[in-house]
Amino acid sequence: MCSLSNKRIIVGVTGGIAAYKSAEIVRRLQDRGADVRVVMTPGAEEFIRPLTMQALSGYPVHSGLLDEKAEAGMGHIELARWADLLLIAPATADFMATMVHGKADSLLAAIYLATPALVAVAPAMNQGMWRHPASLDNVEKLSQRGVTIIGPDSGIQACGDTGPGRMEQPDTIIEQASGMFSTGLLQGKKVVITAGPTREALDPVRYISNHSSGKMGYALATAAADAGADVILISGPVNLLVPDRCQHISVVSANDMLVASLECAKTADIFIATAAVADYRAVSISENKIKSDDKVLTINFEKNPDIIRTVAAAHKSAFMVGFAAESTDVENYAKGKLKTKALDAIIANDISRSDIGFNSDDNEVSWIDADSSITFSKRSKAQLSRDLIAQIAGKYNDQH
Ligand code: C5P
């Protein structure tokens, strides 16, 4: 089963008697390592107090769409971007109708419309309401739009009726929700990813490097593993936990990264270079600590190898994906690199913006290949990674 560690989940609670079970869902998602926020509709607050959900999740509950204080904290668009999964449990007949019609009359409905995240609903209603053609139509429409429908269960209902419409059990909901992350799109494929910065030594204690956090590469590694790939993550020094189910190779310099990349790429189906490789290294590394007596210090640098270019030339069968961090004329420079490095695709991002890219949790990128250019609007790096892995898998499969 897919891990929920570090997955960001919004539990949306709407106004049905099953709302009390949402408390257990929040608890169990957290036990599985997820980072959970709760959004309640006004109707839900009639069934369960926000305080209960706040105490369980450890965060204030979001409910008002026009609440200035809340919007100044994490507004509806930020919440929508933050999430990897929007899990609405229970989802009433009325709320599903709202979703189908694209209304944004509550915070939860607005988040549903704005989010690029995965969405699941666990319907809960009286059996007659569930059986009504309007409800069945709505469920069908949501399903066609990519919403995962979990349940409902069948049995004795709170109103005394017996039949389908009871919310699924929390265990089943969590099982199915976590399964949504494992797409199987890259089942059995070997994916090699470079990530983080490289460090180029100057002397035994000093080095030059850059601000790369490694977040994008690590998020891609998680998404590729979720998609069923065998992942090797070749990483420079970063402060991140190694994602579950990934083989991790720790390197320091560009040369180390090149050696590991060439070796691992021999059998790779897909090679993704997110690493911010230092462009230059010192011509010679001082054996002893460089003294700081001189007013001006001169160090000669030489160009580092271009890792992805070298790998692309050596292993022509691998599908090669590069990244291009640009601050001006982003698309043109990226297109140039696509050609000179002989890549199958390049993912360009604008590093002149402080709200995305380096060190940020969010990113907005353009995917560029020989015959298409697609913009992936701003979203969490985790969500973006899932979307990029789906894009890579699609293109890879077209070619094979
Ligand atoms: O040339 P530039 O650094 O902008 O190219 C970016 C892409 O090339 C990224 O995918 C990066 O990981 C890769 N690269 C590399 N080796 C280098 C420099 C960049 O693999 N020495």
What is this structure, in a nutshell?
With 400 residues, the protein is of the alpha/beta class. Helices cover 36% and strands 24% of the residues.
For the terminal residues, how far apart are their CA atoms?
A: 28 Å
Bound molecules: cytidine-5'-monophosphate
For the record, the count of structural domains works out to 2
Find the structural class using helix and strand composition.
Answer: alpha/beta
CATH class of the largest domain: Alpha Beta
Mean pLDDT: 93
CATH topology of the largest domain: Rossmann fold
List the total number of helices. 15
Helicity level, as a percent range? 25-40%
What do these coordinates show?
With 400 residues, the protein is of the alpha/beta class. The chain folds into two domains: 8-179, 3-Layer(aba) Sandwich (Rossmann fold); 190-399, CoaB-like (Rossmann fold). The protein is built from 15 helices and 19 strands. The chain has helices at residues 20-31, 42-45, 50-57, 68-74, 76-82, 93-101, 107-114, 127-131, 133-144, 170-179, 215-226, 254-265, 307-314, 330-340, 381-399, and strands at 8-13, 35-40, 85-91, 118-123, 148-149, 153-156, 162-166, 190-195, 200-201, 207-208, 230-235, 246-250, 270-273, 280-282, 301-303, 319-326, 345-350, 362-369, 373-380. The strands form five sheets. An eight-stranded mixed sheet has the order 12-11-8-13-16-17-18-19, with helices on both faces. Strands 2-1-3-4-5 form a five-stranded parallel sheet, sandwiched between helices. α11 (215-226) packs across α15 (381-399). The longest helix has 19 residues, at 381-399. The protein is elongated, with a radius of gyration of 24 Å. The protein binds cytidine-5'-monophosphate (C5P).
